[in-house]
Amino acid sequence: MSLQPQAEELLSFWFGPDWDRLPAHQVAERQKALWWSKNPETDALCRTRFEPLVQDAAANRLSDWADTPRSLLALVLLLDQLPRNIYRDTPQAFAFDELARQCTHLALAMGVEQELPAIARVFLYLPLEHSEDIDDQHYVVQLMGALAKAAQGEDKPAFDGYADYARRHLAVIERFGRFPHRNRILGRASSAEESAFLKQPGSSF
Predict the structure, then answer these.
(1) How many CB atoms are closer than 10 A to CB 34?
(2) Residue 193: which H helix or E strand, with range?
(3) CA dihedral (121, 123, 126, 128) positive or negative
(4) 3-class state of residue 23 by DSSP
(5) What is the pLDDT of residues 38-96, one digit of tens each?
(6) ∠ CA(82), CA(86), CA(90), 5° rounding?
């Protein structure tokens, strides 16, 4: 158990009650609206409850959260997932991605994912899927693929879906070297090929 109450509060918010004891598919079904939907009320709730912690994480004031698997997972959430809610459609949504990526690589080097439920590993790995580095993309395809291979029964469809999304992210980076849907937000000029791609369904994640 993490010694940081705020880390546990965040994990309970993100994964819901008893998330570390329930089957993965139950957690995924219960939390999918929070995780994957765009909802202004959810974004506002994330901002009210967790923006100060995001800023603390970005300023390296939560370095002790790297001491346990659960609090390190919470740190990754603060730097990767929460900014996408709190700062949606602004450059700040991606401002902490490199820090999140560093935390994920640290976690993998330490082997802490072995102490986390499979559904939690998805979010531990996601900073690599959000990375515009091709090596990160290949790595996360392997990681998500391993989760999908290990999943059984009712859990398997969810993990197959996560693995598929990882492959789709890789395909975009292989083609463009970056995520074109971020160009407008980050003030990057889109190429003609990217502009054409962005008109296709499913071009944004």
Answers:
(1) 17
(2) helix 192-198
(3) negative
(4) coil
(5) 999 999 999 999 999 999 999 999 999 999 999 999 999 999 999 999 999 999 999 99
(6) 115
* Superfamily per CATH, domain 5-198: Tetratricopeptide repeat domain (1.25.40.10)
Using DSSP's 3-state secondary structure scheme, residue 188 falls into coil
| Secondary structure (3-state) at 135 | helix
Tokens for 172?
């975009």
Per-residue pLDDT in tens (0 to 9) along the chain, 205 residues: 445 799 999 999 999 999 999 999 999 999 999 999 999 999 999 999 999 999 999 999 999 999 999 999 999 999 999 999 999 999 999 999 999 999 999 999 999 999 999 999 999 999 999 999 999 999 999 999 999 999 999 999 999 999 999 999 999 999 999 999 999 999 999 999 999 999 998 888 7
Q: Is 157 helix (H, G, I), strand (E, B) or coil?
A: helix
Burial 35-70, CB ≥16 within 10 A → b, else e: beeeeeeebeebbeebbebbebbbeeebeebbebbb
CA 159 → CA 2, 6, 53, 62, 176, distances in Å?
Answer: 26, 28, 29, 30, 26
The token duo for 57 is 């994480």
Q: How far apart are CA 36 and CA 29, in angstroms?
A: 11
77 half-sphere exposure, CB direction, 13 A CA radius? 27
